[in-house]
Design a protein that fits this description.
Length: 126
């Protein structure tokens, strides 16, 4: 078997494999979030979200709506060095991101079924 025949068989198999994957994965919400930042943010986004009283007061006083928080949880940055990740039940993550006004950072207590946003504040970027 020469190289062109091998390449032909490989191409047919590759094409059939792609068609099968498209068929099985169509309509499903599949994603490839392998990095720790993306996995953590996805974990928080998929849970029921609660707001601490102080956090809700901060958002109300500064006219920041929950869509800005959702945007930060989509594109924000998790600061693992300042987070508490060695707890058994609920880890606490420090997340920063941009709103329409200023950069903010907040702590999120990420439990099994609930993510509670707490300690929100504006910050200056270094």
């Amino acid at each position: 078997m020469n190289i062109f025949q091998r390449l032909g068989y490989f191409s047919v198999g590759l094409f059939m494999g792609i068609i099968i994957l498209i068929f099985f994965l169509s309509g499903k919400k599949t994603s490839c979030s392998y990095f720790p930042n993306a996995r953590t943010l996805k974990s928080i986004r998929t849970k029921e979200r609660h707001f601490d009283k102080n956090a809700m007061k901060f958002f109300t006083e500064n006219n920041i709506d929950t869509s800005s928080i959702s945007s930060i949880l989509e594109n924000g940055e998790v600061h693992f060095s300042q987070s508490i990740t060695d707890k058994d039940s609920c880890n606490i993550y420090l997340i920063s991101g941009e709103t329409h006004k200023k950069p903010i950072q907040f702590k999120v207590e990420n439990c099994d079924s609930i993510a509670t946003i707490q300690q929100v504040d504006f910050y200056t970027e270094n």
